[in-house]
Each structure stands twice: as structure tokens, then as C-alpha cells.
Automatic annotation (TrEMBL):
GO molecular function, one term: ATP binding
Protein name: Type III pantothenate kinase
CC annotations in GO: cytoplasm
Keyword NADP part of the UniProt annotation: no
Gene name per UniProt: coaX
Cofactors, names only: K(+); NH4(+)
Cofactor binding: number and manner: A monovalent cation. Ammonium or potassium.
PANTHER family: TYPE III PANTOTHENATE KINASE (PTHR34265)
Protein role: Catalyzes the phosphorylation of pantothenate (Pan), the first step in CoA biosynthesis.
Length: 248
């Protein structure tokens, strides 16, 4: 058990800006998570001396967000994280690392340091990502598909008559017999099928999960998996420390 650091001025803020939500995680000097929240705006965290910023939202939004964060924490030193940054003990096997989503990379970095071994990482966010890292810390790549909400939205956007209210979705024990349930369970089947196939093809892998839809996925499939809601942030802590101190 990591002892809580008594000094309140060397906390690290990791910002994980995804396409749906921004996660803010506060770490003490020992790497213990003190706070982990979702918020559209910077939270009133205290004692922040370093900020590690990771975003997949796009350059223009990122620059506005960084300016807002720096205004909120004027004394803190902000470092932007990217998938081109590799902690000495790992290897990024992506053909073009500069195009790899930093959230995917940070999840992999966290898996290597926290849950070592041949690992399949399932990140069920705006998009569903399934990524693979070897026990030696070599990132192999992975798969991207739309997440649940994105698939539902694409059916509404791409058709003239698929329309329903969120409250019409719910539990269905048999075959769906309404538009809302047909869409809800149809897109679920897509995601469940993808995850089940990958689990069958990689029985040797331990499974780590994160992302807003991960609890639903884990429970529905009864997966023997580690669920870590702050996995990406923890990867950001590790990579940020490596980039600022040289130690993994
Ligand atoms: N409180 C919530 N806010 C937003 N999305 C949520 C929430 N709870 C569950 N979800 C689900 O999680 C997905 C977003 O997960 P998240 O990991 O935050 O995405 P991202 O990292 O891509 O922004 C949404 O598509 C939605 O299905
Ligand atoms: C796949 C993603 C959109 C996932 O983002 P999220 O679901 O976390 O919002 C993001 O990792 C990304 O923008 N990737 C760039 C393309 C790639 O990883 O190859
Ligand atoms: K994400």
C-alpha cells in the first residue's frame, strides 16, 4: 500500500480528453490516485505542480483546452503527452506512431507497468479499442470500432425512419420488438461479438478493461478481466514522469 504523500504541493494532474468526456486525475508524488473525475471544465484540485495533458480531440480544441487549464493552474508546468514518446523499457510497434491515439498508448503503458504480461486491453469509449501488448512491453497494435452511442447515433443519422427516445431503451429478455430495443440490442450484439471473437482468438492474453462502457461489457460477457477506470490516467502519470524525469 502506497503511503499518502504528506506534501500537498507536488501533486500531478493528468488530463485525459476523449471524444465524449474529459477525465481529470490527481496523483500525489507517490503515484497514488487522489481524485478521478469527469468534467467539461478544470476541477478545483489543489497542490498541482505538474500537468500531463493527453487529448484525442484535435489540435484547435487542444490549444484552447490547454490555455484554459494553464489559466486555472498558473503555477503548474504543463507537458503534452503523445504516442511518439516511449518509456525506455517499451516499444511502440505502430507503423506510424504519430497517428496512434495517445489514449490507446497510455492505456498500453499503464498495462505494462501495472498489469505486466501478454495483455489485451479493451477500452470501451466513444470508440471501442482492443489493443495488444506483449509481456516484454512491445505494443503490437489493435482494432478500432464505433462505440455503443456512436453506433446508435449513426443509425439515426443515416436513416429516415429510425427514431426513438432514450427512455424507450431498456431491458429486453427475448427478441427485441420495438425500434429502440432493436437498435439498442443490435449495436450491443456488434460490440459483444467483436470482443468475444478477440477473446477466443487470444486465449493466452490477460484482459484489462477501461472506458465508460467497460463495466457494461465486462458484466454482460462475464469476462475474467481487470477493470481500471483510471487506467489511461495512470499511463499518463508513468509517461509524464518518464518525459520529465527520465524514470519510468
Ligand atoms: N457519465 C457518462 N458520460 C458520458 N458517457 C458515458 C457516461 N457513462 C457511460 N458512458 C458511455 O461511455 C462512453 C464514453 O466513454 P468514455 O471512456 O468517457 O469516452 P471517451 O474517452 O471516448 O471520451 C459513451 O459513449 C457512453 O456510452
Ligand atoms: C480511436 C480514438 C478516436 C479513440 O478515442 P476515444 O474513443 O477515447 O474518444 C483515438 O484513439 C484516436 O483518435 N486515434 C487515432 C487513430 C489511431 O489510433 O490509429
Ligand atoms: K478514451
Amino acid at each position: 500500500m502506497v503511503e499518502k504523500s504528506v506534501c500537498v504541493n507536488n501533486n500531478v494532474l493528468v488530463v485525459d480528453a476523449g471524444n465524449t468526456s474529459i477525465k481529470w486525475s490527481l496523483f500525489n508524488g507517490d503515484g497514488e490516485v487522489l481524485e478521478h473525475i469527469q468534467s467539461a471544465t478544470p476541477p478545483a484540485f489543489e497542490g498541482v505542480s505538474s500537468i500531463f495533458f493527453a487529448s484525442v480531440k484535435g489540435d484547435q480544441i487542444d490549444s484552447h483546452l490547454c490555455a484554459e487549464i494553464q489559466h486555472h493552474f498558473p503555477e503548474a508546468h504543463l507537458v503534452k503527452l503523445a504516442a511518439t514518446q516511449v518509456p525506455g523499457v517499451m516499444k511502440n510497434g505502430y507503423l506510424h506512431p504519430e497517428r496512434l491515439g495517445v489514449d490507446r498508448w497510455l492505456g498500453i503503458v499503464a498495462c505494462h507497468f501495472l498489469y505486466p504480461g501478454n495483455t489485451m486491453l479493451i477500452d470501451a469509449g466513444t470508440a471501442l479499442k482492443i489493443d495488444f501488448v506483449t509481456e516484454n512491453g512491445v505494443y503490437l497494435g489493435g482494432y478500432i470500432s464505433p462505440g455503443l452511442a456512436m453506433m446508435r447515433q449513426s443509425l439515426v443519422a443515416g436513416t429516415g425512419r429510425i427514431r426513438f427516445e432514450d427512455h424507450e431503451m431498456g431491458l429486453c429478455k427475448g427478441i427485441p420488438n420495438t425500434t429502440a430495443l432493436a437498435v439498442q440490442y443490435g449495436v450491443s450484439e456488434m460490440l459483444l461479438g467483436m470482443v468475444e471473437r478477440q477473446c477466443r482468438q487470444h486465449p493466452e492474453c490477460r484482459i484489462v478493461m477501461t472506458g465508460g462502457d467497460a463495466p457494461w461489457l465486462k458484466d454482460l460477457l462475464g469476462l475474467d478481466a481487470i477493470y481500471d477506470e483510471s487506467l489511461v490516467a495512470k499511463g499518463g502519470w508513468y509517461l509524464g514522469r518518464y518525459m520529465t524525469r527520465g524514470c519510468p
